């Protein structure tokens, strides 16, 4: 079975093609084709990179006409150019799309039809940057592949089983009835890490109490029990929860009221401050990327040190809240850019939970290994570093629905 995965963002598009023969493998296979589009590096142009498994990497820069035309051009490299991996588009069996927001209605991955497309468009009110881009990828794929089945894999679906006490905000009910509630995000990554953790430990996911830490530029935690997300840190939007690269995370809502009363402030400016100018970047004044922040710390920069300390305080506090929801902990998982590549973050996070009997193997932690247990043998809590593979999780959802 050939499964095409499209992961569309506001400024980029990532795609890959898997060729599965027989049963679904436990370990993610290498795609036979990968491609990406970036609209941000050179204004007015789109940068396209295509990497077939066997063949030469294609890199080109073309005038950014309509986004759908650029996406179509990228998809056509599957069967055209120097190193095609298909003979024709008809060889694709199913197409999976990451869709950021599925609202309260979509609690699992769903075959796309007109009703689903209308819902994705309607839910753009909650995800105005992402859902329209996701829908754009769906429509572009329809034009190229015709009636090939397409699947919407919702980032919010993994958190759809939160209890009302976990998803309800303490605001007047009339606003809750408008859809203002905690949805949670990064669900595809949290779901992948749940299953990969169970595989690494040779256990059933349903038998484990896990906290999965997705730490990238955006950060979120999920508390997982009986295989389901029962609590998470992101809420109505991805702004809530942990301190992140450029997002503030949770702050006193009274601050927002205070800022909006200032004469030079408006809603758009406040949105930019909280989402793009805060977090590590806002405190350090250096970067939303951990690497230059850590370099500055080594050079004695006090603001960089404060940024790190605030980040870690937020991370440990939120892990503690997830721990309370679970009533105990069997597995702590670190994933995504920071989670996978910042040993110091993992070390400092784990240091706060030694009272649970968690003992980190510092040598393993520093080796930057992937998909491994980095806890000491006698540790009562297993600590895993997992390379998250959202594209493969989308492909797995397609496989189950085909």
Automatic annotation (TrEMBL):
Cofactor(s) listed: Mg(2+); Mn(2+)
Signal sequence interval, chain numbering: none
Major enzyme class: transferase
Protein residues bound to substrate: 98
Compartment(s): Cytoplasm
This protein's pathway: Metabolic intermediate biosynthesis; acetyl-CoA biosynthesis; acetyl-CoA from acetate: step 1/2
UniProt keyword annotation of Nucleotide-binding present: yes
Cofactor details (free text): Mg(2+). Can also accept Mn(2+).
Catalytic activity, EC: 2.7.2.1
Residues that hold ATP according to the record: 14, 214-218, 289-291, 337-341
Catalytic activity: acetate + ATP = acetyl phosphate + ADP
Matches recorded under InterPro entries: Ac/propionate_kinase (IPR004372), Aliphatic_acid_kin_short-chain (IPR000890), Aliphatic_acid_kinase_CS (IPR023865), ATPase_NBD (IPR043129)
Molecular function GO terms recorded: acetate kinase activity
Family as reported in the entry's similarity comment: Belongs to the acetokinase family.
Protein name, as recorded: Acetate kinase
Gene name as annotated: ackA
């Amino acid at each position: 079975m050939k499964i095409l995965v499209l992961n569309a963002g506001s400024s980029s598009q990532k795609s890959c093609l898997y060729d599965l023969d027989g049963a679904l493998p436990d370990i993610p296979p290498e795609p036979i084709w990968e491609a990406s589009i970036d609209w941000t590096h050179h204004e007015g142009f789109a940068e396209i990179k295509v990497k077939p498994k066997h063949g030469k990497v294609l890199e080109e820069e073309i005038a950014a006409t309509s986004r759908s035309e650029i996406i179509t051009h990228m998809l056509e490299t599957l069967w055209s150019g120097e190193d095609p991996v298909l003979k024709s588009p008809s060889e694709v069996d199913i197409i999976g799309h990451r869709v950021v927001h599925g609202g309260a209605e979509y609690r699992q991955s769903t075959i796309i039809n007109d009703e689903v497309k209308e819902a994705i468009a309607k839910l753009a009110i909650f995800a105005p940057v992402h859902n329209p881009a996701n829908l754009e990828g769906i429509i572009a794929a329809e034009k190229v592949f015709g009636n090939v089945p397409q699947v919407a894999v919702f980032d919010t679906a993994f958190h759809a089983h939160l209890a009302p006490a976990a998803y309800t905000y303490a605001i007047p009910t009339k606003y809750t009835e408008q859809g203002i509630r905690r949805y949670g995000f990064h669900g595809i990554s949290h779901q992948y890490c749940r299953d990969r953790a169970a595989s690494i430990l040779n256990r059933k996911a349903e038998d484990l109490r896990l906290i999965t830490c997705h730490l990238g530029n955006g950060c979120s935690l999920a508390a997982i029990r009986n295989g389901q997300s029962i609590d998470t840190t992101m809420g109505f939007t991805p702004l809530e929860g942990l301190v992140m690269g450029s997002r503030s995370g949770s702050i006193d809502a009274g601050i927002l009221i205070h800022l909006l009363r200032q004469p030079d402030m408006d809603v758009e400016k406040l949105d930019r401050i909280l989402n793009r100018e805060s977090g590590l970047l806002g405190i350090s004044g250096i970067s939303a990327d951990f690497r230059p922040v850590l370099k500055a710390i080594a050079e004695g920069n006090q603001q960089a040190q404060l940024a790190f300390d605030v980040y870690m305080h937020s991370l440990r506090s939120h892990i503690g809240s997830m721990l309370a929801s679970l009533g105990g902990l069997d597995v702590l998982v670190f994933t995504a850019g920071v989670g996978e590549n910042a040993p110091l973050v993992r070390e400092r996070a784990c240091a706060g939970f030694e009272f649970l009997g968690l003992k980190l193997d510092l040598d393993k932690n520093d080796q930057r290994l992937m998909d491994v247990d980095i806890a000491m043998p006698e540790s009562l809590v297993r600590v895993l570093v997992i390379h998250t593979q959202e594209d493969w999780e989308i492909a797995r959802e397609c496989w189950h629905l085909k």
